[in-house]
Amino acid sequence: MNGTEAWYGSWRHVFKLDPEKDISDEALEAVCMSGTDAIIVGGSTGVTFENTVDLMARIRRFEVDCALEVSTMDGAVPGFDGYFVPIVLNTDRAEWINGAQTKGLQEYGSFVPWEETAAQGYIILNEDAAAARITGACTALDEDEVAAHVMMADRLMRLPVVYIEYSGTFGDMSLLRTVRETAQGGARVFYGGGIDNADKAQQAAEFAHTVVVGNVVYQDLAAALSTVAAVHSRA
Ligand code: 1GP
């Protein structure tokens, strides 16, 4: 089993859009019609029910798959094609491993569409990323430590997704290779962070099952769009 049968199992390229950030109708149309496999809605700060519903409704005008990364209960909005629930693996703050998640399930557990919901085991490796600061992630991991976190996620916890998160900076591709080689238990490897051109997208696509492109959408739309074909060109 390699996870390809999952609802996100064929995604090679994904744009991640932040409900807190403004995007014009033209830019959103270009992103949704770009040929990307899906849009993930999610952000580390400022996510509310209102801005999440608003962005979902605008994306819904297009046919592209659209999933929500549920990082706060405020932003848990029905109507997406799928839901990701992040679990941070490299923190010792239990709140981000199972605390917030169990609180959410206590309140909303009976509404969760389980068939379209998947946990993501996050390994956050950029110490300057907002997610690293908020969750107290231990980002200074060597290769063996990262591999151990991957085994924990993929083999012991059997999480369906391992997310290598470098948000804001381009990561270490030899480490990503190790992650992919280690994750043989069925987890899909997502990579996100600092992809701002086709070349970086292609490098990440060599090892990640799914390449996530975020910030550059808001900084250089043409460069963002160029990452789609770059990823898809790597079988
Ligand atoms: C963020 O992994 C994504 O959660 C993408 O990162 O914004 O740096 O592209 P960037």
UniProtKB/TrEMBL annotation:
HAMAP family: GGGP_HepGP_synthase. InterPro entries: GGGP/HepGP_synthase_I, GGGP/HepGP_synthase_sf, GGGP_HepGP_synthase. It catalyses: sn-glycerol 1-phosphate + all-trans-heptaprenyl diphosphate = 3-heptaprenyl-sn-glycero-1-phosphate + diphosphate. Its EC number is 2.5.1.n9. Coiled coil: none annotated. GO terms for molecular function: heptaprenylglyceryl phosphate synthase activity; magnesium ion binding. Pfam families: PcrB (PF01884). Sn-glycerol 1-phosphate binds at K16, Y163, I164, E165, Y166, S167, G168, G194, G214, N215. Its cofactor is Mg(2+). Pathway: Membrane lipid metabolism; glycerophospholipid metabolism. PANTHER family: HEPTAPRENYLGLYCERYL PHOSPHATE SYNTHASE (PTHR40029:SF2), PTHR40029. It comes from Paenibacillus radicis (ex Gao et al. 2016). Gene3D superfamilies: FMN-linked oxidoreductases. GO terms for biological process: glycerophospholipid biosynthetic process. Mg(2+) binds at D18, S44. The keyword Metal-binding applies. This is Heptaprenylglyceryl phosphate synthase. It is an enzyme of class 2 (transferase). The gene is pcrB. Keywords: Lipid biosynthesis, Lipid metabolism, Magnesium, Metal-binding, Phospholipid biosynthesis, Phospholipid metabolism, Transferase. The keyword Transcription regulation does not apply. Prenyltransferase that catalyzes in vivo the transfer of the heptaprenyl moiety of heptaprenyl pyrophosphate (HepPP; 35 carbon atoms) to the C3 hydroxyl of sn-glycerol-1-phosphate (G1P), producing heptaprenylglyceryl phosphate (HepGP). This reaction is an ether-bond-formation step in the biosynthesis of archaea-type G1P-based membrane lipids found in Bacillales. It comes from the Bacteria.
